[in-house]
Amino acid sequence: MLFKRKSMDYDKKRDRNDDVYTKVVKAGKRTYFFDVKSTKGNDLYLTLTESKKVVQDGRESYQKHKIFLYKEDFEKFRDGFEEVIAKIAELKDTDEFREVQSTSDSLTFESL
Question: How many CA atoms lie within 13 A of 48 on its CB side?
């Protein structure tokens, strides 16, 4: 009877259809998922998931990190993200960044 109840709860979750849209971005050993979901009240929210394949004791598994972003924070998040991306572009064009970059490129584990 307990198994049947869990199954019913699972079916209710699936019927709710809270997944609206997913964008998958593969980047080397990591995969990023941008999932738009809806609440019972039909409000939209975003989950950002980083999934990284790891091998431990000869077995593959995935480490996942998830961020939930709610509609009242969309604009602030976008503004902050755009500002940081612009700053990265600005820093890449400076001599100071190039010096730090060339120094870090020449560092090895043994030199630390």
Answer: 5
For residues 18 and 26, give the distance between their C-alpha atoms in angstroms, rounded to a whole number: 23
How far apart CA 17 and CA 64 sit, in angstroms, is 22
What does the pLDDT look like over 50-60, one tens digit per residue? 999 888 888 98
Domain ranges of the chain: 2-106
Give, in degrees to the nearest 5, the angle at Cα 92 between 48 and 82. 35
Q: Is the dihedral of CA 76, 77, 82, 83 positive or negative?
A: positive
pLDDT of residue 81: 94
- For residues 68 and 47, is the Cβ–Cβ distance under 8 A? yes
DSSP 50: E
Residues 6+ positions from 33 with CB-CB distance below 8 Å: 22, 23, 24, 25, 47, 48, 49, 51
Q: According to the CATH classification, is domain 2-106 in 3.40.50.1000?
A: no
